[in-house]
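Pasting as-is:
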Amino acid sequence: MEHNRYLGGATMLSILICDDDTRMIAAMKASTERILKESNVKAKIHTFMDAASMSTSIMSECDIALLDIDFDKAEYNGMDIARKLRSLRSDTIIIFITNFIEYAPAGYEVRAFRYILKRDLEEDLRTILPLALQQRNLGSLPIQINGEIIKIPLDDILYLEVQQHNVTAVTRKLTPERRQKEYSFYAVLSDLEERLAPLGFLRIHKSYLVNMKYLRKFQCKAAILDNGITLRVSEKSYAENKAKFLLWKGW
C-alpha cells in the first residue's frame, strides 16, 4: 500500500456550444459558466454558429456538446455535428437544445444524453449540466507518493474509504495477487466529496465516497458494486442519496 497525500486541483473540461442564434449562444455560455463555477469545475468553452468553423481537433477533444438541433440556414444541422462528434469520440456527452421536442427520437442515433427546450434553457440546464458532469466522470485525483506526483484516473476509482483522515482509494485495477489496487493518503473526506460530487461520486456513509458508475445496487443497508464489493450505507441519509443515485442514472 502506498502512503501519500491529496494535492487538490480541478479538472479542465472542453465544452462545445453551437447555435445559429448569437443570443442563444450567449445565453447558453452564460448559464454554463455559472453552473461550472457553482460546481467548482474548470472548462474551456468553444462557441460556434456553424459546423464549418469547427476544427477536427476541437471536436475530438470535446467532453460535452450543447447543440441546436435545427439550424435555419446552415448546410449542416445539429444532428450532422453530433454524428461527426460521435465518429471522433464515443464518450462525448451530447445535449440537444431545441424549440421542438418532436426532434427527440432522432437523438437515439447519436446517443443524445438529454434534450432541453430553449424556452426552459436556464432551468433545465441547471439540472442537466451537473448530471452530464457526473456522467463524464473526468479527470484524476492528484496525490503525492514519496515526493512524486501521481494522478489516479477518476474512472479507475471504485470508492474512497476514510479512517481518521487516512483515505484509501480502492481502484478497479488489480495487483499481481488479483487484489484491488489501493492508494492510501492523508485527506479530509468532506474535501474530496466537495471536489468529486459534481463528477459522479456519492457519499453513502460517513466512511465511504462511491463512484456511482460502478454502483450496481443501492439498498437501505448496503451498496453493492459491479465487482461484488459490499459497502455500508447510512440509513439516515439513504432516501436522499437514493434519489441522487436515481437522478444520476436517469431513472
